[in-house]
Predict the structure.
Amino acid sequence: MDIRILPSNIANMIAAGEVVQRPSSVVKELLENAVDAGADQVTVIIKDSGRTLIQVIDNGCGMSPDEAVLCFERHATSKISTAEDLQHIQTYGFRGEALASIAAVSEVTLKTRREEDQFGCQVDFADSKHLSTIEVSAPKGSSFSVRNIFYNVPARRKFLKSDNVEFKHILEEFTRVALTRPEIGFTLVHNGKDVHVLRKAKSLKFRIQDLLGRSTADKVVELSASTSVVNLSGYICRPDEAKKTVSQQFFFVNGRYFRSPYMHKAVMKAYEDMIADGAVPSYFIYMDIDPDSIDVNISPTKTEIKFEDDSVVFQILYAAVRESLGKNSFSTGLEFDLSDAPELPTFGKNYQSYRPEVIPPSGSFDPSYNPFETQSGKSAGYSGGSHSFDGFKNGEPDFGGSFPKMSDTPSKGYPDFGSFSGKEKEDYGKLFEDRTLPSTDVVILQGKYIVTPVKSGLMLVNIRRAWERILYERFLSAISANAPVTRVTMFPVEISVGPENRLVFEEHLEYLAGLGFDISPKDMDKIVVNGVPEGFSCDDRSVEALMADVLIAITDTGTATLAGMMESAMAEKFARMGAARGEKITSAHDARKLIDTLFGCSNSEYTSSGQKILSMISVQEIDGKF
Ligand SMILES: Nc1ncnc2c1ncn2[C@@H]1O[C@H](COP(=O)(O)OP(=O)(O)OP(=O)(O)O)[C@@H](O)[C@H]1O
Ligand SMILES: [Mg+2]
């Protein structure tokens, strides 16, 4: 064997694989360096989701011409110098890896000037090689331009995802850093357009509002706890605002973002019984902890943190979230008794040897309380607007209340009738004969059922389920046969959905148009809804909730493309969504029309998930009552 030392540019390129996984990794590293440099204004300029250009400009301390070259060397760092320092890291950076890695896989230009220097310098690097240094005039601070990422690693460049996906990652990194430093102004520009202009903020709440919109800021309550192990602060979402996918979760420790399924569990446990199945609350939780008791260096991207005693932190976090939810008692169904609110646990200095049992707040609350359950004519939903489901035409009581959750029944496509009981099968046959309806005799019961006499007795139609079947067949043919669903134009409603969700809608515009949704993106973070599928009853108060559901339906599939998803499962989702908001049936005319349409379906007896739509009360059964 012939062992040799790899040339440094190849070694750097291999190492870069860990640090620089995609354009967003570069954004993260450059942003962190800017913050470490003491900047109070940072601008990020992106072209083509980072493929063409990633530029980060700061007004921090800058570098001398020598440092400006040295900083691209592997293990070049000004942030630590002894092993001891590694224990008390106060900065984002400490490895001296980031710039070396970036310079190994892209073309980099750095322009920088320190306050005390009259002139600045421009340094060019590519393929880990120093190409040139020239004197330039430059403002105080640094500007890194990273061009053509992975130009020399074609395999990596090829594996970059769509522009929208890559930009979503960039937004995520930007958001994480922006949330740790409200006092720094941040701007994000993509392809010449401002995506975020975040003013220097006095408080975190302002930053959340600037970054994620007023609606998010209005839906959170404060979290705070101080113990000798860890201090907690931040904001958590009100339980009734917890959403299924349109939410964001952030943990920070000592000003650094980290992910932790384990700590997430502590939060979710505290919300238990207060939120709908599958809903995840947004939270912004900041931990302050003795740096000696955590290790941030366990993953190359530093997003995983090892806590010395994570079970204690878990308990404290759980208790604190519980307490905050208790203090901010949200509805009559959720009464916390504050008089005996517990003390948060406190530990002595020597907490390592201490495994206290942490007692969660003992306020009394109704565990069966579900904020999503219908209360008098109102169905609580995902987002701000009320869901009265008033149609364009009328305003009868809605029938969305008992609507099953999407997760209740697995997507099955057409039902397997073999699994129904003999009795139901009997009904099924009978109803076929009774399809010719008398023309006038229909009664609408509480907006939920249509009752009509047929040859053998009375037929009952479950209106919501009828809608579900009708919409299912419409959507299925729209999806599989490319026969667009008729759309009802409405007065345009503008909804602030945030930049990430706006991208999701933009990606699926055509698909949604085929289903009858007329949506156009607006600015960087809004959509305008101009039309919805026929049969969807929707006014501007409920359209926001509808869009939240649409978003859930299209993002449920993860990153898989919709085309790859089972058409029937998708049709079923949209049908349920539509049925929950189906138009009101108030007149005999509407009722008959609904029944006619239902009987025009390939199967009018059961919904696609196998629930009965029709039921019979025979004359004999009526006889039996007398
Ligand atoms: N925007 C900046 N302004 C001033 N100095 C900078 C800037 N960016 C980098 N530097 C200097 O270059 C050095 C190398 O940066 P680099 O990001 O490669 O390593 P690091 O931040 O020390 O550690 P890590 O690899 O963990 O990020 C830094 O330690 C710092 O001294
Ligand atoms: Mg760094």
Q: What stands out?
A: The first helix runs from residue 8 to 19.
